[in-house]
Write a structure and sequence with these properties.
GO terms for molecular function: fructose-bisphosphate aldolase activity. Pfam families: Glycolytic. Keywords: Glycolysis, Lyase. By secondary structure, this protein is of the alpha/beta class. It has one domain: Alpha-Beta Barrel (TIM Barrel). About 40% of the residues lie in helices and about 15% in strands. The protein has an eight-stranded parallel beta barrel with strand order 1-2-3-6-7-8-9-10, surrounded by eight helices. Strands 4-5 form a two-stranded antiparallel sheet. Helix 7 packs across helix 8. The longest helix has 21 residues. The chain is globular and about 60 Å long.
Length: about 375
Amino acid sequence: MTTYFYYPTKEVQEELSCIAKALVAPGKGIISADESISTMAKRFQTVGVENTEENRRLYRQLLFTTDPKISETVSGVLMFHETLYQKTDGGQSFAEVLRKKGIIPGIKVDKNSVPLYCSMDEFTTQGLDDLHLRCAQYKKDGCDFAKWRSVIKIDRNTPSYQAIMENANVLARYATICQSQRMVPIVEPEVLMVGEHDLDRCQKVTEAVLAAVFKSMNDHHVYLEGLILSPSMVTAGQNSNKNNTPGEIGLATILALRRTVPPAVPGVMFLSGGMSEEEASVNLNAVNNVPLCKPWALTFAFGRALQASALRSWGGRKDNVLAAQSELIKRAKAHSLASIGKYIPGSIEGTAGGERLLVDAYEM
């Protein structure tokens, strides 16, 4: 029957809903510290740090052992598989350290993008085959939410219908598997900033992608109250000759969401997508100040735009740890204020403040 459906049990629904609401609590967002080993090599190269497992552990330890007041602005931390099973100098698992601060541990579960054959050089994301087993283990090991990234590129003839539908269906299948294992899925259809497209084109593409994603969520009986959307903000491409104001970016983003995202979804956690730390705060603030009905929490799941100043301040030196943690606290506070529409542009400075952070679009 076309009307047959299956949802998680009431107990699981309640658990998923509670986790999702905690992640998007007012003034809080997520630190995306789920960079792969190869991506960390690029990050470390910018500050002259060798990409060894020990240096990656030390850097993540720096982030996760920041003063407990970080929990006032951070609700969750996304980790890479390696990171989840690393420990502090004192022998505590990182998941345990985070939980003691009241921060929810999460995990990246996709296995990177791969070419979508017979498309216009587009991509799909792999990792579904053993996902139920991995999610079950990650839940046992302390993770309450997961992330899956799909990339959508805008060009003259893309995204194709093929790419939109493929990625929408993969995201929905991932979401159902996560929920079956009592983990909240963060659904990340990232419309890339690369390209020459203008704001209007990005808005239209975003609407097409999100409409397909939520149609697929409905087809796969995903429990929307136990899901979080993590899209890009609507912006012109990095090679566009048009500079839009934060107000224009905010309005285009909200219009795209209002036309496609059901109000049952508890929250939208935006990607920074290569924006500078300051730019990410200013644009998130503008999104929250659009004078239209916004039935979701609108907050952040930032990686580079939260860590850039901290990484630069640390530079691999033990005596710089406190300074780096101070930078992380400052930037998290800026994004926190932006998530409730109260950030004053330029009021919180960082060592990497206005530097654009756009790198390889397909790095995972």
